[in-house]
Design goal:
By secondary structure, the protein is of the alpha/beta class. The protein is built from 27 helices and 20 strands. It has an eight-stranded mixed beta sheet, with helices on both faces. Strands 4-6-5 form a three-stranded mixed beta sheet, covered by helices on one side. The longest helix has 22 residues, at about 305-325. Mean pLDDT is about 85; it is low at about 440-460.
Length: about 750
């Protein structure tokens, strides 16, 4: 085993050693973040499923495609599990194997990278499997071959499809996505360059088809509103799980509910003057009504026709009870419920049972139904008589429905030709909950309780990674969940080292103390010459009394009040701890490194701000590819300047690279939560953004600029102090006018506190 290879003994906890052994990899990039990734996974994945998780990661590590697929999977899969559950793993790995066996193996990393963002948008395993079917179809139909037999060339558009998938699913339902992909395959399968442009959303017709397919109300856009609607109006907090209507051509799926939640379509178009979101509300209200008032019936001895009649009439009862509780629902229900024409079905040639039951259901809801059929009128009268006594029951409605079927039964009801027109009430669920069977059927679904969650071992406690988007300037879109930020307390060193540094700068500290004493806020400031105030101003009052005795007009402003003169400022100092800080400032073997000067400057600044009383946090960062951005806490807002903080600053080390955008976003996450009039993020860096996995020099600059724009939108003021003499061009591009370049680095200990005082006056 080489020195770079981690040994089992590197992991103290036996569980970590067991997991590392099962993973069976020697990638040092994985070893660096292995324990943190396991900490996050243990919060989400049950112990019984953990072997499958590690086996899948091990398979990805053996593909011969480097550490990237394994790293991405280990990082992203817990997020997928949160969104759709662990049971999606077989389908995902089956698709990965299919890509590996084809010429499209290079697209595996791209597929895994956006999988979590896609899963969060789709929110169900069924939806995710439908997405995989779309991707598989695209791969199979656009993978090229030389002689038309064996696949030889990878699909040009597949990697770009994966890259754009989160954005596409933000705009389209799965049915719309399927149509968009189908158009691209049909028109560009034999034009590789234009296929790339189509699936990268660079062609005009690609965007035009996207707009054409973008219709209706997407569930993902209104999920939060619907959840609040359920909780607030119906006092129901069950999960909402979307399904797609794009892949069931023989039988259109209907809403339903089961132990896993309330199932609704992923998109609803406006229909019959009812907005899509109101159709969702009608569907949810109807299912909640069933949960509240319906009771399951034994169905073994009832025919399908009898069960159909019971379902129609029970649905009508639920709708009437809902309209009784919230009359405003009547407009939506009547608009969405079809109104069959009475004589539209020919009983000589067609089975009209559904037609008659749809008329009966409409008549129960609509007092102005206008139907002349005597059996319908009689049944409706009996129906409303039942409801006049209260909510009635499913059993009573079932008895009424069976009586209606017996009275109106015709021989033609058995005909194979059935009239469906104007009989489908699409906001109603499929009523599977209404029936129970004495004998279990072969296709009965049973679900195990999934309440058991693995309690994480106390020995491996730690913060899981936080994932951030990264801006791609070439496509003008975010790469979702692209960067993993791991945060931890910085290791401690010897605080006496910092005391020696402060003693070295005693003269500067004395000068700073004089400035700080002038800036230090006073608790109370008098406001004199007030007609009304909190106390009497004796000097002015005596002067007014003298004026009064002398016969002059006295000054009525004899009171004074007070106001608090405080500084409401929160500052976070973010220090670039990349490898370049180890460079020496001057020539010769005794010159200091930039890191040592940084330690002096940070120590002086922390000492000064502690005397001033402003809330200050200090953190450092460095990166080793997008999979490992380290965010190191040196001082928290609530911590005072003490030996603990001094020890961390004394132990500062410079390593790896500078992925600036991710660090700015993570620092902004903490700073934006502070309640202060001014929130300042002060970045101390010695170079431009860079990382070893990025070859385009402009990419990370553009991402850092985007991060600065995001901070501005959050009310955080970013400012950069650069130690790079050549930084003028790129630092202006990233930070606008909020920057300063320090040409003489040796003056950093003096300039950093002065800069802070200038920024916070």
């Amino acid at each position: 085993m080489s020195p770079a290879d981690p040994a089992l003994s590197d992991y103290q906890h036996p569980l970590m050693r067991e997991y590392w052994a099962r993973l069976d990899t020697r990638f040092p990039q994985v070893a660096e973040v292995f324990e943190e990734m396991m900490a996050e996974a243990l919060l989400v994945i049950e112990r019984s499923d953990f072997d499958a998780y590690l086996d899948a990661a091990r398979y990805l590590g053996k593909l011969g495609r480097g550490p990237e697929p394994m790293l991405i999977f280990l990082e992203e899969w817990p997020s997928v599990v949160r969104a759709v559950g662990m049971t999606a793993l077989p389908a995902v790995m089956d698709f990965v194997r299919a890509m590996q066996k084809s010429p499209n193996g290079k697209a595996i990393a791209g597929f895994l990278q956006t999988l979590a963002a896609v899963a969060r948008r789709l929110q169900s395993q069924q939806q995710l499997e439908a997405y995989l079917a779309i991707a598989r179809d695209l791969m199979m139909r656009t993978t090229g071959s030389i002689h038309g037999r064996h696949a030889t060339f990878p699909s040009p558009g597949l990697p770009h499809f994966f890259e754009q998938a989160p954005r596409l699913l933000d705009l389209l339902s799965l049915k719309g996505l399927k149509n968009w992909v189908e158009y691209g395959i049909r028109n560009y399968s034999h034009h590789p360059e234009r296929q790339v442009d189509y699936f990268a959303l660079r062609l005009a017709d690609s965007k035009a088809v996207l707009q054409r397919e973008r219709h209706g109300t997407l569930f993902a856009d209104v999920e939060r509103q619907l959840d609040l609607y359920l909780r607030g109006l119906w006092r129901d907090a069950d999960h909402l799980v979307p399904y797609s209507t794009a892949f069931d051509e023989l039988r259109k799926p209907q809403p339903y509910y089961d132990k896993l939640g309330l199932r609704v379509p992923d998109v609803y178009d406006d229909a019959r003057g009812v907005a899509g979101i109101d159709r969702y509300r009608a569907t949810l209200a109807h299912m909640v009504g069933h949960r509240r008032w319906s009771q399951a019936q034994i169905a073994d001895n009832w025919s399908p026709f009898q069960r159909l009649a019971v379902e129609f009439l029970e649905d009508a009862r639920i709708d009437c009870l809902l309209m009784r509780e919230y009359p405003g629902l009547a407009r939506i229900f009547l608009a969405l419920h079809p109104k069959p024409i009475e004589d539209a079905c020919d009983p000589e040639t067609t089975s009209c049972l559904r037609h008659r039951l749809a008329m009966l259901s409409r008549a129960c809801l609509d007092p102005d139904h206008g139907y002349r059929d005597a059996a319908i009128q009689e049944t409706v009268a009996r129906f409303h008589a039942l409801l006049a006594k209260g909510a009635s029951s499913t059993a009573a409605v079932a008895e009424l429905a069976l009586a209606y079927v017996a009275k109106t039964r015709r021989q033609s009801d058995q005909l194979p030709k059935v009239r469906f027109e104007d009989t489908e009430v699409d906001y109603r669920d499929d009523n599977r909950h209404l029936w129970r069977y004495i004998e279990d059927s072969d296709d009965e679904e049973f679900f195990d309780d999934s309440d058991k969650r693995l309690a994480k071992e106390s020995e491996i406690l730690g913060l899981p990674p936080r994932h951030y988007h990264e801006w791609d300037y070439s496509s003008k879109t975010y790469r979702p969940d692209w960067v993993s930020v791991y945060e931890t307390l910085h290791p401690s060193g010897n605080p006496a080292d910092i005391d020696r540094l402060l003693a070295k700068h005693a003269a500067l500290a004395k000068h700073l103390k004089r400035l700080l004493d002038m800036l230090k806020p006073q608790d109370k400031v008098r406001i004199r010459y007030q007609e009304e105030g909190s106390e009497l101003d004796l000097d002015v009052a005596i002067r007014s009394l003298i004026d009064f005795k002398a016969g002059s007009q006295p000054d009525p402003r004899i009171n004074m009040s007070h106001r608090t003169d405080g500084r409401d400022i929160a500052v976070l100092l973010l220090v670039d701890l990349s490898e370049s800080l180890n460079h020496k400032v001057g020539a010769g073997g005794t010159a200091q490194t930039i890191l040592e000067l940084g330690q002096e400057a940070v120590a002086l600044l922390a000492w000064a701000i502690d005397r001033l009383g402003d809330p200050l946090a200090i953190a450092g960062f460095h990166s080793n590819t997008r999979h490992e951005v380290r965010y190191l806490h040196l001082k928290g807002f609530a911590e005072r300047w003490n030996d603990t903080v001094k020890g961390r600053i004394a132990a500062m080390q410079a390593r790896f690279s500078t992925r600036m955008g991710a660090a700015l976003r993570h620092a902004g996450h903490y700073l934006s939560a502070r309640k202060a009039d001014r929130r300042i993020l002060l970045l101390l860096t010695d170079g431009e953004p860079a990382d070893i996995d990025v070859t385009d020099a402009e990419h990370l600059k553009a991402d850092a600029k985007k991060a600065v724009e995001e901070l501005d939108a959050q009310g955080v003021i970013p400012f950069c102090l650069s130690l790079d003499a050549k930084a003028d061009d790129y630092v202006r591009e990233i930070f606008g006018h909020r920057w300063r370049v320090l040409d003489r680095i040796e003056r950093l200990p003096e300039q950093l506190p002065m800069l802070y005082l200038a920024l916070t006056r």
